[in-house]
Write a structure and sequence with these properties.
Elongation factor P hydroxylase, 5 helices, about 170 residues, EpmC, 2 domains, globular, mainly alpha, translation elongation factor activity, protein biosynthesis, about 10% strand
Length: about 170
């Protein structure tokens, strides 16, 4: 089984001391909050207790640079469901890499991964095009290497869920 509490514990044991960052479940919406005078640690907040939401938000954190990690939600824009084609293209441009990393996390812990367009009104062609982009990004990361924090967490998940990376399949 995949429990949000396990994910929180694994992340916090791995990154709290080294990166002053904790994973927090129970959010109404996902959100990244840098440390401030009221909170000594950076917080990655994921939706409710959804394991997949936690993996996704960790993936965003793993690719955010030092400056981005000093900004609320890494300084990115977000347009809710119902985006037009141009807005959806912008979404896909910034989401392919985190979703590819989330896919690798999912495989490391033997969890099914589902592409998220985050745009329920979008045409099915968008879904196919975006899935191909995420798959290509994943292949590139597998060949050239994952960002260091992502690689560390893939290893942590693989050990905890007893998944040998060579056994991965899509």
């Amino acid at each position: 089984m995949h429990y949000a509490s396990d994910l929180i514990q694994l992340f916090n044991q791995t990154f709290e001391a080294s990166h002053n960052t904790i994973l927090v479940g129970g959010g109404e919406e996902p959100l990244y909050l840098p440390a401030d005078q009221n909170h000594l640690r950076h917080r990655i907040i994921f939706r409710l207790d959804y394991f997949a939401s936690g993996l996704h938000e960790i993936a965003h954190w793993c690719i955010a640079g030092r400056q981005r990690r000093q900004q609320v939600d890494y300084g990115y824009w977000y347009e809710p469901d119902g985006r037009d084609a141009q807005q959806q293209a912008r979404f896909e441009a910034v989401e392919a890499r985190p979703q590819a990393i989330e896919w690798a996390f999912s495989r490391a812990c033997q969890k099914t991964f589902r592409i998220s367009l985050d745009n329920l009104d979008g045409p099915i062609e968008q879904s196919r095009r975006f899935q191909a982009k995420v798959e290509a990004t994943l292949r590139t990361l597998e060949e050239k290497g994952f960002p260091p924090r992502a690689q560390t967490f893939i290893s942590v998940l693989s050990v905890y869920y007893q998944r040998h990376p060579g056994a991965w399949d899509r």
